[in-house]
Amino acid sequence: MIKEFGLEKIDESLLNRIKEYTKDLHPMLTRKIFFAHRDLKWLFDEYDKGNKFFIYTGCGPSGPIHIGHILVWYFTKWLQDKFDVDVYFQFTDDEKFMYKNLSYDEIQKWLNENLLDVIAVGFNPKRTHFIIDTKHAGLLYPKAIKVAKKITFSTIKSSFGFNDSTNIGSIFFTSMQTVPSFLPSVLKKKNIPCLIPHAVDQDPHFRLTRDILPKLGYYKPASIQCSFLPPLTGNEGKMSSSEAVKGILTTDTPQEIKKKINKYAFSGGQATLEEHRKKGGNPDVDVPFQYLKFLFEESDEKLNQLEQDYKSGKLLTGELKKYAIEKITEFMLEHQKRRESAKQKIPDFLLKC
Amino acid sequence: MIKEFGLEKIDESLLNRIKEYTKDLHPMLTRKIFFAHRDLKWLFDEYDKGNKFFIYTGCGPSGPIHIGHILVWYFTKWLQDKFDVDVYFQFTDDEKFMYKNLSYDEIQKWLNENLLDVIAVGFNPKRTHFIIDTKHAGLLYPKAIKVAKKITFSTIKSSFGFNDSTNIGSIFFTSMQTVPSFLPSVLKKKNIPCLIPHAVDQDPHFRLTRDILPKLGYYKPASIQCSFLPPLTGNEGKMSSSEAVKGILTTDTPQEIKKKINKYAFSGGQATLEEHRKKGGNPDVDVPFQYLKFLFEESDEKLNQLEQDYKSGKLLTGELKKYAIEKITEFMLEHQKRRESAKQKIPDFLLKC
Fold first, then answer.
1. Is residue A1 a contact partner of residue A262, using CB atoms and an 8 Å limit?
2. In chain A, what residues touch B134 (CB-CB under 8 Å)?
3. What residues of A are in contact with residue B170 (Cβ under 8 Å)?
4. Would the CB atoms of B145 and A152 count as touching at under 8 Å?
5. Helix boundaries (H) for chain A
């Protein structure tokens, strides 16, 4: 994937450099959940010169938020705290309306739900600026047309799988997605480096962004990519929020989490207790283990212990699931507590324009 | 053209119906400059029921305003006054930026110039609402995406001559052009009929608008179409503002008007004085005569006299040109006087949102 997309691996020397700024390393870095990047070294060189970057990430509101979404956001919050930088957070409600078979009102309903989850992550309201495409269109559209003028249909049709039956809004949309990567530079009237943390499937959008920005006089944005969180059923690929049963949602009750893990989570354990004790389990394909590794087990020591015990057959599938349910539930109850009080905070987060 | 575009001719019975509302008929109607329509009868039926229409027209700011532009606007003002209706006037600065090889700043310069000409026409500031696409994008874009979702690339590529090399902003733009035709219905929360006066070359945009609006729950807009004003050189086709020498501009001095008519205006007269006296001239191809007929000679009696005298050879080319120069100059000096004081009036005309 690194070769195919032209990414660079995050190696030990880069991890060490990050550690110089952050003192400790986030588990998603040491565990290689965030495994690749573009131009991070350049970004830090600029940072050293006093040219602080900002972070751009986002959310396409078309359904409930699952743990695949929030893992990027929790990592983004960590970056914000460690580097003390602004986060521009884009809600692409226009994109989801035009791409999906959902009404405008349904998308707005999901937008209002998703806003709460982003706030619940704990971003710094003084340094975090929400951009909602339909609400900030007055700010975005005049800049998006400058992007659009530089992109032909033939440039994007293969990247996004478009053809003549694609609606003209979906065709235009990538222009709107490009704007936040240079908007702070416009607003502050100086060229500010941009860092985009994202799951690796979003890469086509941001490769295009990197092509366009220099043509408009801005830096190419740097980026940092994470792998997909496996779906509950353990198949390869991305967890889809439209197939709720496959994923754990931020609004799930403890009972739902327990049921989903126990009933659906793919296990790397053996078919019988005897066989498991003898051969051991495979943590690499075991979904409860992977969830602990991606997001819910902060202690490396504990994670290593679980891995060894599972491999050796000492830890049973049921025991591993039970532990994962506890950790996920604990995490979600905290998230949900912050989510409860998020509604009144929305105005503090909206980008002023 | 009527057959090809599926338009209806404005016949005597329709002219009589218009006269019932307006008391007199505008010369552009009696002279068949505005010669075709769609759904005017339906529009008047709704008007009779108390469901007053609004007018939507516009300007694409990419150069100076010539007399081909203002003839539509002066007719529109007449309609506004006679029917006492709102005019929504769209400035498609986004379109011109994306279609033309001009910078954003150049387009904004032309926008600011063109605004003055529209105000100089004399629209009622209480009933006229300017929509500037880049400035009102916050209002337009969330509605444009509802249009865009219903239009595929294949639907519009032939209408607009698009191909894979077309930029994605131009592809999207027709969605923005569609919004003003239902915006008042959105703002006033009821379905209001729309009338679009336009030169016949804009028809593809508005045919599309007619297809889309019922899908969004609004009436198909009615329309009224005028012919092209011939260019100075008398060739068939539309006068282009980028070829200034071919057209008379609203900012031309009396000297420039005189020079343009005397030097460039195609004459329907004969090659020699003797021949002209004998055979007479042809007013149908004579540009000064056509300009008088389209816009500058308000008296039908005077126009008929000129036509007869020119045909008979009594009126010479030089004499006809001299008269046209006088009439055009007189008209333009008045227009320019109103244009002078227009700048301070811009805020009164901008749609509040």
1. no
2. 141-142, 145
3. 148
4. no
5. 2-5, 12-22, 27-30, 40-48, 67-83, 93-99, 104-120, 137-148, 153-160, 168-178, 183-187, 203-212, 254-264, 273-279, 287-291, 300-312, 317-340, 346-349
Interface confidence (ipTM) of the complex: 0.92
B128 bridge partner residues: B87
Residues of chain A with C-beta less than 8 angstroms from the C-beta of B209? none
Q: Which CATH architecture has domain B2-227?
A: 3-Layer(aba) Sandwich (3.40)
Whether residue B94 lies within 8 A of chain A, CB to CB, comes out as yes
| CATH 3.40.50.620 intervals, chain A | 2-227
Looking at chain A, the domain(s) classified CATH 1.10.240.10 span: 244-339
- Residue B101 forms contact with A (CB below 8 Å): no
Predicted structure pTM score:
0.93
A136 close to B (CB below 8 A): yes
Interchain CB distance below 8 Å, B174 and A167: no
For the stretch B138-190, pLDDT in tens is 999 999 999 999 999 999 998 899 999 999 999 999 999 999 999 999 999 99
CATH classification (class only), B244-339: mainly alpha
Question: How do residues A213-267 score in pLDDT, each as one tens digit?
Answer: 999 999 999 999 999 899 898 865 444 444 446 589 999 999 999 999 999 999 9
